What does this fold into?
Amino acid sequence: MTGNNRVSPLIKKYQKVRLQHLDRKLENRITEIVCLYTKNKIMPAGKQKRHP
It folds into this structure.
């Protein structure tokens, strides 16, 4: 019982950290997509096709 109580907070902390990490990854992905979308909207059609 005592061992379980000791592990539980660690698991909760790990889950919280994991969740925050996933949120950050998702946020970065969304920002990327939005950036690409706005770039494509702003750029003229001719320049869109050219990739660096």
User: Anything to note?
Assistant: The chain has a mean pLDDT of 76. The helical segments are 2-42, 45-48.
